[in-house]
Write a structure and sequence with these properties.
With 245 residues, the protein is of the alpha/beta class. 33% of the residues lie in helices and 17% in strands. The strands form two sheets. It has a five-stranded parallel β-sheet. A five-stranded parallel β-sheet has the order 8-7-6-9-10, sandwiched between helices. α8 links the parallel β7 and β8. The chain starts with 8 loop residues before the first strand and ends with a strand.
Amino acid sequence: MPEAEPFAWHVVLVDYARDLFSPVGFEAERLAQAGASWHVYECRSGEEVLAVAREADIVVIQSVRPLLTRQVIAQLPRCRCLIRAGAGYDSLDYIAATEMGIMVCNAPTYCTDEVADHAIALLLACLRHIPRLDAAMRRGEYASRLAMPTRRLAGSTLGVIGLGRIGARMVERMRGWELRVLAYDPYASHERAAALGVELVPLERLLEESDFISIHCLLNEQTFHLLGREALARVKPGATIVTAS
């Protein structure tokens, strides 16, 4: 029999978490068909990443741990592509990778519905004081006073910061709740906002008028501490802020 040809590409998943993610067997089969090998490790530090990925052509990261820093990427001489197996990519230094000529990819549609649903769940839990009522019940206390004040969603104002896939999906899911919806997103067009039935406004106005605020933006230099002391001072008393970013 002719000797099997060596794999052309060496692909490494560096931070697999077997307690959180499904088995990764199908990737090996698909990549083998494309002439690539697939290796899975459970790294939790930059040093561990370097120990297994120095010869990798493609490095995949699942979690939000900041494992792929500038220092680590600089020591991956064969790497041609970094892949974040999720929507956000702040767990890797994409600026450094770009400077080094390394392609960066993500999975922008990963868990869009699930994250939107989670944001709504957080909002409702806060609205109905579910965490503290649950804690009181587990202590054997009758604590109806902890359910106060009780507010209605209908007629309230929801402010959505970030009108990307997840923010827009949350808006779509909440259409039946009879809410007025404001949105802040410097990259969204008024046509997109109108199609979603929301009003695009400056951040200051959103903070001042919203009863509920949901944050859906990636972490970068522009969004770091977006809601700082001055911004939070604009929020109306009693407003609820949730983030699933």
